[in-house]
Amino acid sequence: MATPAGFQALPLPLVQLSLAAVLKCGQSFRWSILPLPKPSDPTIPAQEYRLCLRDRVVCLQQSQTALFYRSAFPEPQPSPTQLQLREAETLLWLNDYFQLNIDLPKLYDEWAARDSVFSGVKERFGGIRMLRQDPWENLISFICSSNNNISRITKMVQSLCTQYSPALLSLPDLSGHETHSYHPFPPPSSLAAPSVTVTLRSLGFGYRAEYIQKTAKMLVDVHGTIEEGREPSELWLESLRGLATAEARTELLKFIGVGRKVADCVLLMSLDKKEVIPVDTHVHQIAIKHYGFKGLLKGKSPMTPKLYEEVNSKLVRIWGDYAGWAHSVLFTSDLKSFASYSVQNPTPSAPVKSSKRSNLESLLPTPPTTPSPSPLKRKASASPPESSDKSAGLADRMKRLRRK
After folding, report:
1. What is the pLDDT of residues 272-313, one digit of tens each?
2. What is the rounded distance in angstroms from the CA atom of residue 348 to the CA atom of residue 335?
3. Where are the alpha helices (DSSP H) in 259-322?
4. Cβ of 354: how many Cβ atoms within 10 Å?
5. Which residues, given as ranges, of the chain have pLDDT below 50?
6. Is the residue at 121 inside a domain?
7. Domain span at residue 165?
8. Which of 89, 344, 386, 393 holds its CA 20 to 30 A away from the CA of 354?
9. Calpha distance 52→358 (Å, rounded)
């Protein structure tokens, strides 16, 4: 099909990346999903996905064989030359965020060879890969996830941005009848004041309000703030990518409101710890149902540290180095909201409404039992450790060149 007007095209089959699965399965909660006019041709994109970064809104559409992308910028609009440079930055960001250097079908083949259960879902649930998110946003999002469901987490994260981050720009929806404002994710300094707790409680965050404010304050107290650009605490969180998994987990567990499950979500989804499997009741039930793990299929067993470690270790032995990635495929395949999904028809129909509590209500972690008040010990150095995020470094160099 032809590239949509204003978009750039990146050849990429759905088996490498399915936006309809990856952006709806509980990894990230800030993507806006807008329906496109319903096409008669199934190869034509049916949805547009938008995410507000600090300096642009990234807009994506997808066909069976290509990912289409463009960026929208606040005033003043870049010149044609500047726009070309900035779209190159967007492409670098896309490659990093979706980890497109990883050959996903090759991993699927390896998992299917090791696991007959995975082999049974491989064809239908292709294109599900882990995102490489900003660690600060990922941390706060999963503090919000405690004892919560995907739709409510999404509402909370979006209200957090609206309340504490000025709108970057506004864009019309795809019908042209309504305009939407897009807000970046707020930095730690914006959430560190004591008044944040009261405001977030008024917005429906409950006990999570205090966890968010205290976590932000811990970061700011130790690492400080700067006037422009990314804050030192954000750079410190990103530097955890360079630590061993156990050491990085220890650092995350120092935050108020972060237990083992939340820490493991952050390790997997933003800190490059691809072998980590976040374990909750839903994952435990998958282990019982498919992998001979002992336990009751009905009812909830308490998720003790010992049980958590046993489930994690068993699944890692089955799937290997990219066990966290494999788990996300099985996790998604078991969701009721994906009952009609297939990578050949990646826009699942709406699930049948039920008066019973959906599985989505219990997918995410319960509140940590003993949040640690320990202050962070690691100080930010004058020169932050070199990040493994090479594309971000290149984008920063491009920005410096523009300012010369």
Report:
1. 999 999 998 889 989 998 998 877 656 566 788 998 999 999
2. 12
3. 260-270, 281-291, 305-319
4. 8
5. 348-395, 397-404
6. no
7. 135-275+324-362
8. 344
9. 29
DSSP code, position 374 = P
- According to DSSP, the β-strands at 66-72 and 169-172 are unpaired
The catalytic site residues sit at 261
Measured over the CA atoms of residue 146, residue 348, residue 98 and residue 60, the dihedral's sign is negative
**Bridge partners, 182 (sequence order):** 169
Residue 34 in any domain: the answer is no
Task: Tell me the three state secondary structure of residue 272.
Answer: coil
Q: Per the domain annotation, does 90 fall within a domain?
A: no
Judging by beta carbons within 10 Å of its beta carbon (0-12, 13-18, 19+), is residue 287 exposed, middle or buried? buried
Three-class HEC string of 145-172: CCCCCHHHHHHHHHHHHHHHCCCCEEEE
- Using an 8 Å Cβ cutoff, are 331 and 359 in contact? no
CATH of the domain at 177: 1.10.340.30
Give this prediction's pTM: 0.84
> What is the rounded end-to-end Cα distance, in angstroms, of the chain?
40
Which tokens sit at 328? 């996300």
Question: Distance between CA atoms of 352 and 349, rounded to whole angstroms?
Answer: 9
Per-residue pLDDT reduced to its tens digit, 83-107: 999 999 999 999 999 999 999 999 9
Interacting residues of 131 by C-beta distance below 8 A, sequence separation 6+: 22, 27, 28, 97, 98, 99, 269, 270
Cβ distance 286 to 330 under 8 Å?
A: yes
- Six token digits for residue 390: 């090479």
Query: Quick one: tokens of 313?
Result: 């270790």
d(CA 19, CA 209): 30
Q: Classify residue 264: in a domain, yes or no.
A: yes
